[in-house]
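lol forgot to send this yesterday, sorry. struct tokens for the thing we talked abt
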């Protein structure tokens, strides 16, 4: 398995100003970085991809649905059309970066609720949009990993088994789901056991502590999770996702109002040590 680090710990838009982060991540032993795709254009990501490759790092991306005006589950045809355009833009930026994997909660706008679970019509629209997205992504060789989030952040996709059902409905070989230890810790009765039940659909993994701090410092069963992934034959990315207070807007969005680690270097160094120890267990 490859170990990556999500740069959302520092920023929602990676530029040359963040290039100094790459060498320490590489020196710590990481195989790659995960880049948020929340703005910009393919040209920006092409240049960024070259910079990352020069550091000897591979790359994945994470994207989302920014608002109701481009929601792929909307009953409004114009919004769904804009949603398809947005999903294609995510793929274009990912391909320009040189990445073969795009993950994230690109199923609905975050923090939007109806007071109920998803309707059959919403799930059908989602499957249709993601099938089109997967077909488009197959051209540049991009794999998609849709991310179920906990019920306090979204309502359309909350559990691993719901995500696996969506993967089956979309029915494309380059479409799977992202297993995130933070969200699984909230939503799953058996966060470790669900890995075996949904393993064929898992295309990406986020290692995220229960408080979004340094992996290995909280109550996520990391060694057991990694053992289950190995037993299931998973051999893709293990990407650390942590959040801090470096950016006020991002801290507010992720509900981070107190410090969970001394500094970002603690997460970089401690996270990979915890994963390596878990893999060796």
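and heres what i got for the seq, position by position
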């Amino acid at each position: 398995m490859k170990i990556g680090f999500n740069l959302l710990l520092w920023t929602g838009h990676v530029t040359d100003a963040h290039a100094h982060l790459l060498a320490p991540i590489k020196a710590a032993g990481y195989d790659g970085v995960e880049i948020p795709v929340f703005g910009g254009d393919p040209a920006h990501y092409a240049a960024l991809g070259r910079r990352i490759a020069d550091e000897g790092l591979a790359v994945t991306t994470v994207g989302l649905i920014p608002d109701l005006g481009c929601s792929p589950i909307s009953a409004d045809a114009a919004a769904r059309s804009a949603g398809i355009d947005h999903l294609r833009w995510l793929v274009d930026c990912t391909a320009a970066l040189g990445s073969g994997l795009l993950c994230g909660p690109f199923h609905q706008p975050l923090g939007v609720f109806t007071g109920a679970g998803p309707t059959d019509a919403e799930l059908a629209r989602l499957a249709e949009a993601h099938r089109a997205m997967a077909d488009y992504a197959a051209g540049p060789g991009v794999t998609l990993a849709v991310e179920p989030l906990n019920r306090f952040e979204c309502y359309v996709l909350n559990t691993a088994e719901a995500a696996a059902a969506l993967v089956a409905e979309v029915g494309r070989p380059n479409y799977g789901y992202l297993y995130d230890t933070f969200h699984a810790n909230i939503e799953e009765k058996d966060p470790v056991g669900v890995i075996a039940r949904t393993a064929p659909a898992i295309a990406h993994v986020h290692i995220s502590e229960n408080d979004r701090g340094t992996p290995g410092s909280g109550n996520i069963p990391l060694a057991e999770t990694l053992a289950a992934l190995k037993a299931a034959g998973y051999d893709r990315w293990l990407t650390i996702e942590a959040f801090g207070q470096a950016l006020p807007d991002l801290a507010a969005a992720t509900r981070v109002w107190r410090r969970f680690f001394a500094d970002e270097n603690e997460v970089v160094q401690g996270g990979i040590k915890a994963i390596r120890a878990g893999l060796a267990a």
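Residues 117 and 155 are 6 Å apart (CA to CA). anyway ping me if u want another try
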